[in-house]
């Protein structure tokens, strides 16, 4: 008997859209079919706001 190691690799694209404003921005993620992934977030034009955006990206 021979053992065969099979590994499946699944890849997909996620797109990030950002609506830029002077004080606040709105960002959302969509999959490659164009369907939203979760809700959009509004974040301030600041370092703290940028950290909120990075949290969105890293948790979805």
Automatic annotation (TrEMBL):
Pfam families: DEDD_Tnp_IS110. InterPro entries: Transp_IS110-like_N. One of its GO terms (molecular function) is transposase activity. Residues 16-56 form the Transposase IS110-like N-terminal domain. One of its GO terms (biological process) is DNA transposition. It comes from the Bacteria. This is Transposase. It comes from Thalassobacillus cyri.
